[in-house]
Amino acid sequence: MDGRAAVLRAAREVFAERGYGSATTREVLARAGTTSPTLHHHFGSKAGLYLAVLHDVVEEILVELTDAVSGHSSFLDRVDSMLDASVRLNEQDSTTSRLVFSAPVEVRQNPELASGSDRVGRLVDFVEDMCRESEDLALEPAEATRAIMTILYGLGRSAITLDQRQYEQVVAAMRAVIHGAFVRLPA
């Protein structure tokens, strides 16, 4: 692993564990096994490093979600595929959920991260496009987008507090809610 990749991986872990404010570049560099010139050469600063990590995480998610929804035209099939993708992403790397869940708060609290809202906004844009392109959506795309983003952020919160098996159970329960199968209707 080259110096840049090692710093990105270490930063991803440290930011996911400690958050932007509590993380230190010293800790990142120690974990990466490199020195501050590597960090400054590739990222310029702690903020630049965080934004690079956030960019990579959002890109990974977008690739996974794009693959998940391709070939589906119904809203429920697309949402089901996105839920399946969230399980895969969390299983592959739990830092993904931690970073995406915390990113909007970190960006709001730290002015030097302001451009991070553009990166997070790409996820919102993706979901809105997915809603708009679904052939059977009963809501306005903007309303459906807010609902889906709320579900995804809620699942992200669950992913950082539960083990993988429990997370999969929560995703299954959310799928039941979305499909309207959460309660038995009277006969």
Please, could you describe this protein's structure?
With 187 residues, the protein is mainly alpha-helical. It has a domain of 125 residues: Tetracycline Repressor, domain 2 (Orthogonal Bundle). 79% of the residues lie in helices and 0% in strands. The longest helix is centred in the first third of the chain and has 24 residues. InterPro entries: Homeodomain-like_sf, HTH-type_TetR-like_transc_reg, HTH_TetR. One of its GO terms (molecular function) is transcription cis-regulatory region binding. It comes from Nocardioides marmoriginsengisoli.
Short overview:
The chain has 187 residues and is an all-alpha fold.
SSE blueprint:
Layout (H helix, E strand, L loop, with lengths): L2 H20 L2 H8 L3 H8 L2 H24 L5 H18 L2 H15 L6 H18 L7 H21 L2 H15 L9
Helix pairs in contact: 1-2, 1-4, 1-6, 4-5, 4-6, 4-7, 5-8, 5-9, 6-8, 7-8, 8-9
CATH superfamily of the domain at 54-178: Tetracycline Repressor, domain 2
CATH class value of the domain at 54-178: Mainly Alpha
- Cα radius of gyration in angstroms: 18 Å
> Can you tell me the residue ranges where pLDDT is under 50 for at least 5 consecutive residues?
none
Distance between termini?
62 Å
| Overall shape | elongated
The biggest beta sheet is recorded as:
none
Strand content: under 5%
Per the CATH scheme, the topology name of the domain at 54-178 is: Tetracycline Repressor, domain 2
- The tally of helices reads 9
Q: Please identify the structural class as seen in this structure.
A: mainly alpha
Mean pLDDT: 92
- The CATH architecture of the domain at 54-178 comes to Orthogonal Bundle
Tell me the total number of β-strands.
0
Helix percent reads: over 70%
Order of helices and strands: HHHHHHHHH
Subunit arrangement of the protein: single chain
